[in-house]
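To whoever is on call:

I kicked off a structure prediction for a single chain this morning and the downstream step that reads the tokens threw a length-mismatch warning. I double-checked the sequence; it's 312 residues and nothing unusual in it as far as I can see. Pasting both halves so you can look.
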Amino acid sequence: MVLVGLASCHYPYREMLADESLDEHSRDSLTMLYERHYAPGLNLELLSDSLNLACLPLQNCINMLYKGDHVVIAEVQKDTTDVNDSIWVKLAHSDGVQGWVYEKDLKHQFVPADSISQAIYMFSGSNKAVLAFMMAIFIAFFLLRDYQREPFKLVWFNDIDSLYPLFLCLVVAFSATLYETMQLFAPDTWETFYYNPTFSPMKLPWILTLFIGSLWLIIIAGIAAVSEVFRYLSEWSVLYYLVGLMAACIFCYLFFMLTTHLFIGYFFIVLFTAMFLRRLWLRTLSYPYRCGQCGHKLRQKGVCPHCHAINN
């Protein structure tokens, strides 16, 4: 319920438009961002093999664009008499190559030139998600097969004495839940972010602030998890564990994204959080001390059961 409530947040464009000190150009750009989620001056890259730009009003004049060409949005016009699409967008590739396309063609065949937007497009494709899920299952199958022959450290099943790997999986699951929540309840907010991406969580709707914060937390937890793995495991065990951790993160991302779309992902994220907190209690809070010699956790001071050193 909290996630659904936060998803109703919006960019403060209406409040900014009320500022009488804005010049006409800034006001038009803000209005365009509020209504269409993009504005003139946005750089785009063509994804399809080719595209025709119509030189309106001369319908017979056509300029060709090819895959990988970069263009900039020059102008947006509304034509209520057009039955196909009422919004026309003028794109400029160079001084001699300019023309108009339908807004629907713009959104389907172009991606913002920003690296963040291109990364979003890369990871949001349904075919790529299916391939990633199959890869995660394939890796998990071979890891479990080898684990049955000779047990080794594996996230969750035979985990190391650290909660960072499991915390990384939890943060990935939380990010996937937030992402799908925006797709369901705040698609306009996500589309605006897609065309105007940022890594800063400031001055954004709360749902996006949480999402950007979770992405930063993934980076921090990932660095901490890798550091802990190298601390506890030997060379070959590290390879097995990191491959298993990567498969677990992929699985968590896709599982929670799909289940959130069916509205049962919220139950699973609460369950996952409860399981993590229980393990946190068992592994950390119930062992408040560490041996001064070997570093193992202790329930109470005294003789260490591992190295028999006396801890006062």
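Update from on-call: the warning came from a stale cache, not from the record. Cleared it. Sanity check on the structure: Residues 71 and 95 are 11 Å apart (CA to CA).
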